[in-house]
Write a structure and sequence with these properties.
Blueprint: H1 2-14, E1 25-29, H2 43-46, E2 50-56, H3 65-70, E3 77-85, E4 89-97, E5 115-121, E6 142-148, E7 153-154, E8 166-167, H4 175-187, E9 193-199, E10 205-207, E11 216-222, E12 227-235, E13 247-255, E14 267-268, E15 272-276, H5 283-289, H6 297-306, H7 331-334, H8 337-345, E16 366-369, E17 372-375, H9 385-397
Parallel strand pairs: 1-3, 1-15
Antiparallel strand pairs: 2-3, 2-14, 3-4, 4-12, 5-6, 5-13, 6-9, 7-8, 9-10, 11-12, 13-14, 13-15, 16-17
Helix pairs in contact: 6-9, 8-9
Bound molecules: heme C.
């Protein structure tokens, strides 16, 4: 624990990044085989963990009173992330705080599991046109790896009571008896929940099932630190994404089953810059992700009031929820300055994929024009550039504190 605290302080002091930005994660180049790397690998002691702040994704209001109550005023979470890579693969480890263990219980729809996801942009050559942070968007795909806690364990009373759980290695069963045990576990539905998707928004998630993206994710609870530790390994390049570059944008998300987290109800980071040790270049991407503050947030706050944004958006938690547009309460936590500016100047470039037609039929966030989605947000490109930058600077301040 002490080492983690020290690392945090050092990174905060050493970081030259301006307000709001995450530290860059430096992926260590190694010669070791990464296809079988586990959390126990000594490589993680050589890699440097950098802090990544995950913000509550508050874009849409859930159609679920209990979940909304449980998640009102969620603080941000600070995770620690490290990366290592070789010529074929790249591996990440993410550690994040979570005081409770929530395991997926079979097909029960009222059960929600803890879990994490790592997201990669399929294209990142234009640092100001990255995919929408929450699962990509039309024309800007992402590849997402999701690992939920659903272990192959037997827990006789079905209450998810961790103290009563048994895994097959702890039994003295073999042969037919072991097979019967495995069958019983399988019938409870507690099999490994690991998935990967290529996604252009929630409506168009395609599960990658052909094995062509060779990945492996694992998760375990660290009792001592009261939190989870997850690892993901994937190919450095495949048909979906080429990560063999000096700098790559990566985003992280975590779910808390205790708070009924699922889908968009999670904690999410902004796109974070991961540099691959030994490769040079990619400064423009680092600059774009570090979110340099160019405007005056105070002036931006006044401009937002003057331009009626609150008519469609909940801007701070003091405003009432507004179904006309996504809530901006945490927008500064998971967005880059480039994305915020684009939202203002070209609202239709990315349509926020959260709009729930069934929950909010009277407030469509977009209309269809020849099959193309057109945002119902008016375009603010007529504002002078200083005002635009001031608004972006203010939007970057909108985010929960870490507790
Ligand atoms: C007429 C209603 C309306 C007004 C007024 C409006 N917006 Fe929006 N805004 C929307 C809708 C609907 C969306 C979601 C669809 C989309 O992605 O364009 C959106 C999206 C956004 C997003 C992206 C949110 C996300 O979760 O990624 C930002 C940022 C934003 N608006 C900022 C503003 C600001 C700043 C103003 C005032 C200068 C403003 N909006 C005025 C309706 C509006």
């Amino acid at each position: 624990m002490k080492t983690i605290v020290t690392t945090l302080l050092v990174s905060a002091l050493a970081s030259s990044t301006l307000f709001g930005a995450n530290a860059t994660i430096n992926a260590l180049k190694v010669a070791d085989d990464l296809s079988t790397i586990s959390y126990a690998s000594a490589l993680w002691n050589k890699a440097t963990f950098a802090p990544v702040v995950l913000y509550p994704q508050t874009t849409i209001r859930m159609n679920d009173k209990t979940a909304n109550e449980l998640n009102a005023d969620n603080p941000a979470k600070k995770a620690m992330v490290a990366a290592v890579y070789n010529d074929h693969s790249i591996a990440f480890m993410i550690r994040w705080p979570d005081a409770t263990i929530n395991v997926q219980k079979g097909e029960r729809t009222t059960s929600y599991a803890d879990g994490f996801a790592v997201q990669f942009a399929s294209h990142f050559s234009d640092p100001n046109a990255l995919p929408y942070i929450g699962m990509g968007s039309e024309g800007r795909p992402v590849v997402v790896y999701l690992q939920k806690v659903a272990k192959d364990i037997y827990e006789p009373n079905g209450n998810g009571d961790v103290a009563l759980q048994v895994n097959r290695n702890q039994t003295d069963l073999f042969g037919k008896a072991l097979q019967a045990f495995d069958d019983e576990v399988a019938s409870l539905g507690n099999s490994d929940y690991e998935r990967s998707f290529i996604s252009e928004g929630f409506r168009s998630m395609t599960e990658i099932k052909d094995g062509s993206n060779n990945s492996n994710a694992r998760i375990r609870y660290m009792k001592r630190n009261k939190g989870w530790e997850g690892t993901l390994t994937r190919a450095l390049r495949d048909e979906y994404v080429n990560l063999d570059a000096p700098v790559i944008p990566v985003a992280f998300a975590v779910w808390d089953g205790e708070k009924m987290g699922r889908d968009g109800l999670k904690h999410l980071s902004a796109w974070v810059a991961v540099t691959l040790q030994g490769k040079s270049g990619g400064e423009a991407l680092i600059h774009a992700l570090e979110g340099t503050l160019v405007g005056d947030p105070k002036a931006g706050e006044r401009a937002i009031a003057a331009n009626g944004c609150v008519g469609c958006h909940q801007i701070t938690s003091k405003d009432a929820p507004n179904l006309m547009g996504p809530s901006l309460v945490n927008i500064g936590g998971y967005s880059t300055a480039g994305y915020l500016k684009e939202s203002l100047l070209k609202p239709s470039a990315v349509i926020v994929p959260g709009y729930n037609r069934n929950a909010h039929p009277a407030y469509p966030w977009y209309t269809l024009n020849n099959g193309k989605r057109v945002s119902s947000m008016t375009d603010f490109s007529w504002l002078d550039e200083k005002t635009q930058n001031d608004i972006v600077a203010y939007l970057q301040t909108l985010k929960a504190e870490v507790k």
